[in-house]
Design brief:
Layout: H1 2-15, H2 17-41, E1 44-45, E2 48-49, H3 52-85, H4 89-98, H5 105-116, H6 120-128, H7 130-151, H8 155-163, H9 166-207, H10 213-223, H11 230-245, H12 249-275, H13 283-297, H14 299-317, H15 323-329, H16 355-360
Helix pairs in contact: 2-3, 2-7, 3-7, 4-5, 4-11, 8-9, 9-10, 9-12, 9-14, 10-11, 11-12, 13-14, 14-15
């Protein structure tokens, strides 16, 4: 029965991935801005206070504008790359083959023939078709975020009615609050580090007067959200793009070294300092999560793999029968509890001490 249930759930995840991906992203965006809205609604200007619904409308408008601007930027850079890719097709094929020249002329010719056999136009048409998908996904995310903000005031009440036990509702709200805080901190740090890294790659390619500087900076920003492998893939792509435009090994090696050092400094020195002990996840568990969600939802699944893993680890750490799963997912095998869960006979905590009420805006 367990195997059958897992197969059914996996089938539904694959078939409904368009809606589920948009819903997951909308929940993350909602949780990122909900704390800010609660803080703004408590600010008083003389005798007046900003109403919660006004802050919610402003947040939805800000999220919608940011998503539409980002989607437009991605589509414009995608069109720029696609429109000039065909002009570099022959140079790219020769550059890739020359990378294997040290193995002998026969190997180089074999690689060249293999690369030329790839149908580039088919991949370009597939990439161009993603533009409509991106816009549809953005519109769906905006709708989900809008309805989440419309329902945010009643989340706490609904949770108590759903649990039919106020003590259990407090425990569940505390767990959800912990998940939201950790995921929010992770995403904010990742966004900051990825932005700085993407801008550094843009400056690097601009200094060498290479094309696609903006596209490579945006690609680096996006790929850096994929832990462990995203920065490696971004560095290799940037190096390959530079080598295709300037077929000199010295220039390509220099760009590879500078880009690699930038990724290492920001990703392995600055990132852990800012992240602290927010995420105590197993590296092997992260790779497994990336592989699973990448197979189920593709590239969007790889972006969501870490937030999902954080949620699973925190939930399992508070369920005695599932705690071994949390131990396996944690780095040191000691999944810490961010807060002590209240016992069943403890009286309700005041609103300011309820993590979930701050996280989702229950009043």
């Amino acid at each position: 029965m367990g195997i059958i249930a897992f197969a059914v759930v996996l089938f539904l995840l694959v078939q409904a991935k368009f809606i589920l991906i948009a819903l997951a992203i909308a929940i993350i965006l909602f949780s990122l801005t909900s704390d800010a809205i609660n803080s703004i609604s408590r600010v008083r200007i003389g005798r007046f206070r900003i109403a919660s619904w006004v802050a919610s409308i402003a947040a939805v408008f800000l999220i919608a504008s940011s998503l539409l601007i980002m989607a437009g930027l991605v589509i414009s850079q995608l069109n720029t790359v696609l429109s000039t890719t065909l002009a570099y097709t022959d140079d790219a094929q020769r550059a890739i083959a020359q990378m294997f020249g040290w193995m002998g002329e026969d190997v180089e010719q074999s690689v060249l023939q293999t690369v030329r056999s790839i149908e580039i136009s088919g991949y370009l048409r597939s990439a161009a078709g993603q533009a409509g998908t991106i816009l549809s996904q953005v519109v769906l995310i905006i709708l989900f975020v809008g309805f989440l903000f419309a329902e945010r005031v009643w989340f706490g009440t609904k949770l108590e009615k759903l649990m039919a036990d106020k003590a259990q509702a407090r425990r569940v709200s505390a767990i959800i609050g912990s998940i939201i805080r950790r995921v929010n901190h992770y995403l904010l740090v990742k966004a900051l580090i990825s932005s700085v890294t993407g801008f550094a790659i843009f400056l690097l390619l601009s200094v060498f007067n290479l094309q696609f500087a903006a596209a490579m900076g945006l690609l680096t920003f996006v790929l850096n959200f994929i832990p462990s492998v995203g920065s490696i893939i971004a560095t290799l792509i940037v190096t390959l793009v530079a080598y295709i435009q300037v077929p000199e090994p010295q220039t390509a090696v220099l760009i590879f070294v500078i880009a690699g050092m930038t990724q290492f400094l920001l990703g392995n020195v600055i990132d852990p300092m800012l992240m602290g002990k927010t995420l105590r996840l197993s590296s092997f568990g992260i790779i497994i999560s990336l592989a699973f969600w990448g197979a189920v939802w593709g590239i969007p699944g790889m972006f969501l793999a870490v937030p999902f893993m954080v949620a699973v680890m925190i939930v399992c750490s508070h369920i005695p029968s599932a705690r071994p799963v949390a131990v396996l997912l944690s780095r040191e095998g000691l999944p810490e509890e961010e807060f002590p869960l209240p016992p069943a006979d403890q009286p309700p905590a005041p609103p300011e001490e309820r993590p979930f009420s701050h996280a989702v805006g229950a009043e």
